[in-house]
Amino acid sequence: MTDSDTRQPAPSVTPSPKSTWPPKLDGWLDAVARRATAEGILSSILVPLVSALAALVVGGVLIAIDGVNPLSVYGAILQGVFTKSRGFSYTATVATPLVLIGVGYALAYRARVFTIGGEGQYLVGAVAGTAVVTAGGVGDLPRVVLIVVGLGAAIVAGALWGGLAGVLANRFGASIVISTLMLSFIGDSLLQWAVRDGIRDPDSYNANSRPISAAALPSFFGQKTHLGFLFALVLVPIAWWLIRRHRWGFRIDARGHNPGTLNANEFSSARVTLSVLVVAGGLAGLAGMVETTGVNVRLGQEASVGYGWDAIIVALIGRLHPLGVLVAGLGMAGLTIGFESAQRQFELPSSLVSLITAFVIIFVVWGDAIAARWKESR
Amino acid sequence: MRSVSRRFGETVALDGVDFEARPGEIHALLGANGAGKTTLMRILAGLDSPDAGTVEVFGQRIEHFEPGPIRALGVALVQQHFTLVPTLTASENLVLARPEGALLPPGRTAGARVRRLVEQFGLEVRDGVPASQLSVGERQRLEILRALDADAKILLLDEPTAVLTDVEAERLLGVARALADQGRALVVITHRLAEVEACDRVTVLREGIEAISDGAVGGYTRADLASAMIGTDTSGTITARTTRRTEAGPVCLRVRDVSLGRVSSLSLDIGEGEIVGIAGVDGNGQSELEAALSGRSAAESGEVSISGESIAAGDPRSRRAQGLAYIPSDRYSWGLIGPMDLSDNLELGRVLPIRPNRPARHKAARPSLDHWDVRTAGPHAKTSSLSGGNAQKLVLARELDEHPSAVLACYPTRGLDPEAADTVATRLVAAAEAGCAVLWIGAELDELLAVSDRIEVLYDGTLFGPYLPPFDRAAIGLAMAGDAADRARTATGGEPGPP
Amino acid sequence: MDTLFSIATVEAGIRLGLPVALAALGAIINERSGVLNLGLEGMMLSGALGGYIVNDATGSPWIGLLAGLLVGALTGGVFAGLVVTFRTSQVVTGIAFTIVAIAATTYLFQLRWDIGELPPRVERLGMWPLVALTLVCVAGVWFLFRRTTLGLTISAVGESPESADALGYNVVLIRWMATIAGGALAGLGGAVLVNGPLGLFIEEVTAGRGWVALALVVFAGWRPVPAVAGAFLFGLCDAAQLRLQGTATEVPYEVFLALPYVVTLIALVVRARRSHTPAALGDPYVRGAS
Q1: Domain spans of chain C?
Q2: CA-nearest residue of chain A to C195?
Q3: Which of C52, C86, C88, C107 should one mutate to test binding to chain A, selecting the residue with the greatest count of A CBs within 10 A?
Q4: B316:A265 CB<8 A
Q5: Do B61 and B164 have their domain in common?
Q6: Among B290-294, B297-301, C285-289, which is the least confidently predicted range?
Q7: How many domains does chain B have?
């Protein structure tokens, strides 16, 4: 027996729970979604903020135990993000998929549709998009067309992957949580096959696709940051507007609060379920293609870095609000990028940043419980 | 039980009730919904405690009302909602209730326990299948067996026949008789007259007071019992209509052969400007009728149409556009979204693709809220902050504002204080006078008598009637208790009802 | 294809299936009592690290297994305290629990052994003792639910806590016991992985096997024997895809990678209508709340 007996743990920029499997998330987001959409200052801003600070304090204690001054570590993290030449550019790049997928989760969770399938949708999106743009004979197309077609294929693939869970739920009553989890694992297998065989570059020794050169997203700021970050930035106000002003957003919130009333008076709640799953899937698929064409040159076996899992945390810490998701996504990305350089400088265990992020989510859960008690006692 | 009283907040559930159960007798406890029957039984079983009065079991006065000790005295309550573990078989449920050691008895021994009980008491129960797969009748017999397995001397059965078919109900009463003959005391809660006739003594409760106290069953006619149950008092909380339609207008809402669950092949026509009241005891198919007519569930067969247009299930916006308004029986499950504000709730069913901004929405909601007298802090208030009456007025505002051609009103006054109930009723009557067809499903007969142009009685999924003004309370009461159904069956040469 | 179904593949499949089987048994006990344990992956991982460190220190894989069992029971106790007594959301708590466990085990591991330094291999147990151990556990769980009053009570608490409470059973206590027992088995599963087939610990060594175990429980309809069968199906698929990697065959090895999940998905659809899901799964119990 050798090490290869365990499947390689996914290289991950942030802690990746190797997925999640809750058949009855209903009880969960009952609390989280209600509170998040109730837009109370306390729960929507204070709890995540205090949780993040508390987690940094705990992290500081751990750093101090390691014999390093925590303040200089945090200083180096800030420096890494804000003053180092590429810090912000890298942060924006890492935040892009987190925000794209996270907004999709946020919309679904507002409707209390508990998908955790972002990772699989991200992967099938990347595979489908890459397959289209690296297919023979498309190389002559203009770059703009190629990019649009590639992203379109990714969105459609992700949307189908997500929509499948919706159909299984509406037709057969299958738990969305389990089905999206299974579809994520299946999506990963699909990626492994695609890069090894299906869309493999025959001239390459490694298992990966042909280079997507012509379809590469333009970068701006002269840096790593690519067009995808702009998508994320544009998506946030659109999602916000949809929630506040569009009928679809209204139905999403109505389904989250009371599917029975929605069903009896306004619209089929099953169709709302399907639509949010399709949209969240499409966004995750888009994220997959954006990452492939904006950051990587080819699609490889290592494409599964766990953004789809991390985005669950981002959506929850962002309180299911698009703006919150943007802030949480940037915060998580910034912590990761900033820590990378600080870790080398101070010789800290690389897992420390994961531990700090894990404490944020624990403190958010805890803080929510405390806030709920406090509200009840009033 | 002597002069037992129990209040819940301002509601008096029981007011000085005396009650006795004697060995060897079946005592029927009769009453309409909310008369206090179940409260009385829960007190007797120790699940609730009285505010005043005393309870004695076999001469021993009960001081602390806890289920355990009272059960040990031999009192067993079989509640309306079953307390079996649905995935366990009959023998497993019995073992769970009274285990014999740390190891489960081998299948044969456990089966023998069930068989012994089944033989001893003549209550047929299948063993070896999960309780959830048993028929309701079997589940109930199993509950009774479980009580007998614990050697219950006083057996309280809360509406045991409500969920049973006629044949099963008849068998159950036979079993009750056999148990009484063994010297046990039985109390059967019911609202069906036919079942009272199978008992020895009867107590009738009406609004927490005894209308008939511990009488011999033979001393009363069905009419006596029915009038004791529903009362002769015609002064309801609802202002009665002064004029009634004698002739309905052209048919507006048409129900043809609708079947769903308990409701079988039900047909009904309602004319323009007519209020048709559906009377009946809860659980006779009202919820299925509501679901089918509102389009919340697709009927198994049949058609609901309005002005000749068929109403599709699962498409509430079309239903509304076709002119059918719906006031649900449970406004918090199917009518309103508590955490959203009043203007959002008013817009349900006609939300624009791109909505106006929030101030504009609130401004647009204001006239409607004023017109329907929804008393609130304003259109921005959360709907969950409304009192029951105002919440119902909000539903009316949404449903009636667009002058629908028909209204399905399900228990529209349920849970409201008298003033709010009267307001709601007045609004519905006004809608009818303006030409709207109103189907009013109600639980309180007084209310239906006050507003209806015609009353139909829903019993076991079938309509009996019509009853026309001036209404014969007694006849309607008898029909609600199943008398009309019994006679219809006898007349058609079908299976006779219980004697 | 000849090599695919060789004895070596089957053996590897059994070895890889054992940890998953144990964790699935643990999850069955948890879930039958109505506690949804999404922290299973984290408990497995904690047990794996505990088992590794103790084995490394004592040189005895058996003591390592015991340590894994105890660490798992401890994590189960912490989880029970949160979800049963404090009634926090089982789902959020479970996910957070796993996230923390992944980060914390990695952190502790990195504290002990610097990056780049090769962590020592520990003494490994052969296949047969572990097979025997697993069979004992399967038989135990099967016996618990089929032959004992306690097992019947656990199921009753997971199905209908109100009924169990009305019959005088202590719902909170039974759920505590079930959660601790489930955690212990998950921890044992993690320790078996490390002290058995692998002989070493690496970051996230369980690699999602806890989630697979949770999915298997659904696939198996909450019954121990099918869950173990499913675990070996998973192990075989895992071994097959490992063996097929690098060899060109007509059947892509990724099919075996995906097979357990596809089967679970199909089982989900087929079973959804007549589900054996414990009715109270995921719901905190408050007397008189329903």
Answers
A1: 7-272
A2: A1
A3: C107
A4: yes
A5: yes
A6: C285-289
A7: 2
Q: Would you state the structure tokens that stand for residue A224, as one six-digit string?
A: 């790593």
Q: Listing from the earlier edge strand, what are the strands of the sheet with B26-31?
A: B75-78, B154-157, B185-190, B26-31, B201-206, B209-216
- Answer for the pair B343, B327: CB distance below 8 angstroms, yes or no: no
Contact B88, B130 (CB under 8 A): yes
Which among C103, C110, C206 has the least Cβ separation from residue A358? Answer: C103
Find the mean pLDDT for residues A314-331.
91
Q: Is residue B487 part of a domain?
A: no
CATH number of C7-272: 1.10.3470
Decide if A261 and B316 are in contact by the 8 Å CB cutoff: no
Residue type, A9: P
Which of B296, B337, B355 is nearest residue A245 as measured by Cβ atoms?
A: B355
Residues B206 and B280 in one domain: no
Tokens of C22: 């144990």
Amino acid at residue number B131:
A
Is it the case that residue A271 has pLDDT exceeding 60? yes
Distances (CA, A) of A78 to A330, A339, B265, B421, C65: 13, 9, 73, 64, 44
| Selected residues 348-377 of chain B with any CB under 8 Å from a CB in chain C | none
Q: Is C31's pLDDT higher than 90?
A: yes
With beta carbons less than 8 A apart as the criterion, state whether C63 and C125 touch.
no
In angstroms, the CA C255 to CA C269 distance is 20
B14 in any annotated domain: yes
What are the strands, taking DSSP E only, across B333-372? none
3-class secondary-structure state, position B155: strand
By residue range, what is the domain housing residue B378? Answer: 251-468
Q: Where are the domains of chain A?
A: 96-319
Report the CATH number at residue B202: 3.40.50.300
List, in sequence order, the alpha helices (H) in chain A.
25-38, 41, 47-65, 70-82, 87-110, 118-133, 143-172, 176-193, 227-245, 247-257, 259-265, 269-294, 307-317, 322-346, 352-377
Residue B178 placed within a domain: yes
- B186 and B42 co-located in one domain: yes
Q: What is the DSSP letter of C197?
A: I
Q: Nearest Cβ partner of B352 from A247, A264, A267?
A: A247
Chain A residues with CB-CB distance to C207 below 8 A = 6-9, 18
Chains within contact range of chain B (3+ C-beta pairs < 8 Å): A, C
Estimate to the nearest angstrom the gap between the alpha carbon of C283 and the chain centroid: 21
Please give the angle made by the CA atoms of A36, A37 and A41, to the nearest 5 degrees.
60
* Interchain pair B340, A254: CB under 8 A: yes
Residue A88's pLDDT is what?
84
Say which residues have a Cβ less than 8 Å from residue C274's Cβ, sequence separation at least 6.
none
Residue A204 has pLDDT above 60, yes or no: yes
The percentage of residues in chain A with a pLDDT greater than 90, rounded to a whole number, is 41
C residues 143-172 lying closer than 8 A (beta carbon) to B: 146-153, 155-156, 159-160, 162-164, 166-168
Least confident of A9-23, A73-87, B13-27, B292-306: A9-23
Task: Give the pLDDT of residue B388.
Answer: 82
**Nearest Cα to A318, choosing from A26, A104, A24?**
A104
Structure tokens at B44: 């007797």
Question: Is there a single domain that holds both residue B312 and residue B164?
Answer: no
Among A175-179, B43-47, B438-442, C236-240, top mean pLDDT goes to B438-442
Q: Is the CB of B317 less than 8 angstroms away from the CB of A267?
A: yes
- Would you place residue A26 in the very low, low, confident or very high pLDDT band (cuts 50, 70, 90)? very low
Query: Any residues with CB less than 8 A from the CB of A285 and at least 6 apart, and which?
Result: A121, A122, A124, A125, A126, A128, A129, A154, A155, A156, A157, A158, A159, A161
Report whether B142 contacts B86 (CB < 8 A): no
